[in-house]
Amino acid sequence: MKWWWYFFFSNVLYGQSFLEEWTPARTTVLDTLTINNCPPELLWQWFGLSKEGVYSIIEYRELMGYIIDPIELVGLPGLSKQDIGELADVLPFSRDQPKRSKNQLIYNGSVRGALRMKTKFIGSSGGFEWGWSKELTMDGESIVSSKPRAFICTKHSGTVQSQWLIGHHTLLLGEGLLSGSRGFGTSPSREQFSQGIRGALSTYGAIRNGFGATSQYKNGRLYMSFDEGVGINGAVEYRGGQSTLGLGLVNGTGTSYFKWQWKSQRWFGEFTVKEQALGWNWWRDDLLFEGYLHRKEQKTTTVVSMQWRDATGKWSLQLIEDRFKGNWQGDWLRYQCAGTSEKSLRHRLTVPWDHRSVDLHYHNGTYGGSIRSSKTMRHWQFQSSLGWVQADTSPIWLSVPVATGFIGAKSVYEDFFGYHFKANKGGWSTSMSYNMTKPFKEGFTLEWRYATTLDQLSPMLPKIGVAFFNYRRMQKSDWKLER
């Protein structure tokens, strides 16, 4: 055992010394960084990406060269759409180009038995940000319209930096024990990086509706959120060069949380009366190790995660109590395995083949597979997938192409034979699927998304105004008789 302790402490004491320890040079370097020149260790340490996400960006830069738009990163392993959006907010793609307009109109919908449509508008100008969304569901003769979600936010920069927000928002503190997590993610890390108050239009997570405010003076921060349902919530926080310490009140319960960076290690945790979480991760050369303890209602859960790569490929392993997940990705073969103590193993083998890939699945007697392909013609990008499943007692999950903004995974619990297709061009994305084992009305789905900026939409505003006026006139009178 002596050699093991010697190895451990030598790596801890003499591990990588990141630039964060060499302040004040850090500020100067941040002013020169872009997504195209940021080194991998800083992507992990400063910007909170998973090891898999860091590898994806570095390998994409080496293969494709200069990254000019965030859309290029969508779909890369280890990067969720929220990760990409948050990274693009703090790191420009080029120091020579001005930041692009964030004013966007997004319209998406789906047909799965019922027709669901959602319109979202987000924008910013100067020190203001805003967002608005509304959903509409049509099922047979009934039409259900959701209440609109909206927020408006203003920011002030000075000796005291402030932010005031009215409307729907999230309050994220510590590791999310009380305030909730940031939503869906792909990183195996349990550490939460998103902090503070943000406007939110999503229907997932702990969404609050009311008033929010943030103030920052030097190293101190103050968060306040008022919601009619849960009352006043907030926190006082200190942020140093390598540490964060906060005290807060969420839903009537007190909480304390911290982060501490030392060389190539980072400690993080949150503590409440009924629930506690403590984690530690460590980067050494090509290995990222993380340990995580979570205690709630006298039950303690242990999570151990490791990610590394060697000459044979990229590896990841995650142990969660009596469950585990493993993944290996080589140049011409990929393998994933997940299981529990009941010896229920789920296997997935992927074989890349030119612009295609073949997936084979097996889970406790249930087996299946799919063939996926992608192709680009002029300005169009096409993806398709043909899948089949022979079901027994356990489900499997197929990766399928879907329109931007939808979840590209299909859970299958019964026999399945179907086809998925997706097409992208500019801001337009659409996908369709058909399960041939069911009647057309039950087995057919259609999804779409269209996103455009106000600069592109402004020439059509007069026509949109006329169309809206005619629509309102039709609702208020019998327009056929008037004609």
Description:
The structure is a single chain. The protein has 483 residues and is of the alpha+beta class. Among the domains are: 14-100, no CATH class; 148-283, no CATH class. The chain contains nine helices and 28 strands. It has helices at residues 2-13, 25-30, 40-45, 51-64, 81-90, 440-443, 454-457, 461-476, 479-482, and strands at 104-112, 114-125, 128-139, 142-145, 149-156, 161-172, 196-199, 208-217, 220-227, 231-239, 243-250, 253-262, 265-271, 275-284, 287-296, 299-310, 313-320, 323-329, 334-340, 345-353, 356-363, 366-377, 380-390, 396-399, 409-412, 416-425, 428-435, 444-453. The strands form two sheets. It has a 24-stranded antiparallel barrel. It is globular, with a radius of gyration of 25 Å. Residues 1-28 and 479-483 have low confidence and may be disordered.
Q: If you compute it from the alpha carbons, what radius of gyration comes out, rounded to the nearest whole angstrom?
A: 25 Å
Main β-sheet description: 24 strands, antiparallel, barrel
Instruction: Give the overall form.
Output: globular
> How far apart are the termini?
93 Å
Low-confidence stretches: 1-28, 479-483
SS summary, helix count: 9
Proportion of strand residues: over 45%
Overall pLDDT confidence: 81
Q: Portion of residues in helices?
A: 10-25%
Number of strands: 28
What structural class should be given to the helix and strand makeup? alpha+beta
How is the secondary structure organized here?
Layout: H1 2-13, H2 25-30, H3 40-45, H4 51-64, H5 81-90, E1 104-112, E2 114-125, E3 128-139, E4 142-145, E5 149-156, E6 161-172, E7 196-199, E8 208-217, E9 220-227, E10 231-239, E11 243-250, E12 253-262, E13 265-271, E14 275-284, E15 287-296, E16 299-310, E17 313-320, E18 323-329, E19 334-340, E20 345-353, E21 356-363, E22 366-377, E23 380-390, E24 396-399, E25 409-412, E26 416-425, E27 428-435, H6 440-443, E28 444-453, H7 454-457, H8 461-476, H9 479-482
